[in-house]
Design a protein that fits this description.
281 residues, alpha+beta, Ribosomal Protein S5, domain 2, Alpha-Beta Plaits, ten-stranded mixed β-sheet, 10 strands, globular, 4-diphosphocytidyl-2-C-methyl-D-erythritol kinase, GHMP_kinase_C_sf, GHMP_kinase_C_dom
Length: 281
Amino acid sequence: MIPNEAQAFPAPAKLNLDLRITGKRADGYHNLESIFCLIDLCDTVYLKPRSDDLIILHTPTGDIPPEQDLAYRAASLLQKHTNSKLGVEIWLDKKIPTGAGLGGGSSDAATTLTVLNHWWECGLSRQQLIDLGVTLGADIPFFLFGKNAFAKGIGEQLSPIDIPKQWYVIIKPKAHVSTPKIFSHGNLTRNSKPSIMPTFQSLQPFRNDMQAVVFQEYPEVWEAYCELSKYGSAIMTGSGACVFLSTDSQQEANNIYQQVSQSYEAYCVEGLDIHPLFQMI
């Protein structure tokens, strides 16, 4: 049970509308270019402040120890970084599927950092939070940036990008893709040409350089992609497993959703322009 005094904060998911790998770095990471888009599919992070320095996660996920959860780690990192003597209790109400390429865990962490920076009066700027967040995960900076973005580097170099209002139909196949496995795959495309002046229009047709390798290794993702491709230009988000397509109208998205949701876990969601907690930083 979540106590009444715990406050609820949204943690929206993301889609990678386009994702290209432009090279491998000396540290083993890959340089990417991607369009990140916020969507109205949200986890809820419930937080209750503590006057001591304890951090307690009441809703650990599956077999993962609480200390390895990204929201817990975000609170712990902020506490250490700012020498805060305050603590927090955390409950996560997960609506974003895990292992899906939708950034659920990263978004939970970003929401936790945003709220605790405010509650604990840490005074960190947005860029300082981004610099802290990237040490936990490459998707966290985007959620702290708080607007639809073109990302470079490992995802931490962000600039705003205009995305027209769209609705998205997302299919979650019964597969949990291992991101390290995909990044280390011998057949992965790693030499996409960097963009000069990236815009929503200039980058089309969109693609995902990880897609072909994921299809090769995870036939369930390929099958979901084939199903969704009957209705338009489907594409995979992140390293998978989710595939999605975009539509200009809610009615069209709903119609497609009604079809695919009969045989798949599916979502029909609206794109967002700005993170609901943007003004808190």
